[in-house]
Structure prediction request, 272 residues.
Amino acid sequence: MDGTAGTRVVLLACGSFNPITNMHLRMFELARDHLEDSGYQVVKGIISPVGDGYKKKGLIEARHRLEMARLASENSWITADSWECLQAEWLETTKVVRHHYNELLAQEQNNDDVDTVKYGKKRRIEDNHYVASSAPQNRDSTRLMLLCGADVLESFGVPNLWKQEDIEEIVGRFGLVCITRSGNEPLKFIHQSDTLWKHRKNIHIVQEWVTNEISATHVRRAIRRGCSVRYLLPDSVLNYIREHKLYTEESEQKNIGVVLAPLQRYTGASSS
Prediction:
């Protein structure tokens, strides 16, 4: 799916960012190069750290993850957004995508000097009636696409981790930019999924030829063991981790034995 006459695109990345690494930032650069080579105009990147309610093992407080994302993206075309991580409960990625798309619409409406009171009413209707949100994006407006790694794409197949209608909406209405990673086969996975195959033209697979296997899990482990992680993270993030003494044996035990929020919600499972 090629961009039409320089269609403007905003890239949104959701995730733990625990901590944010150079590879997270690299994904934005790879996606921008690929999309602009396909005729799009990438105008902004958004990092949206997940809230504490996600209940992932070793997930430190959102305020720290957000601040590290802000430090990492300073003086760049990427920005860190606090809306998702400040919510009291975990939110499905679909709701986060809708929120940012509505923000884009509001900004464009304001830029065009339309009646903002009328638009505010329209937006409230859209927020409260998600059935209508399955309509495709307006091709004349700025598009929002979800940016992720191949591991996230393949997580669509994990039972009870995603709702099928959410996958349908994310891929069918907004679109996906997926960065390849060693050990993942996104094209094969798309071929095996009827939903993804139906919307395959909305999925951009970006090949990373300069392989970089930086893992936040491995970074945390190295920090706990007192090993150097320099050049794996921005220096500003590393300094923040040291200053606040983050990623300890204690923090890695956080949420241990707790069922991941989506599994709790979709299966009714409770923490052990």
In short: The chain has a mean pLDDT of 89. DSSP finds twelve helices and six strands in the chain. Residues 93-111 form the longest helix (19 residues). The beta strands are 8-15, 41-49, 78-80, 143-149, 176-179, 203-206.
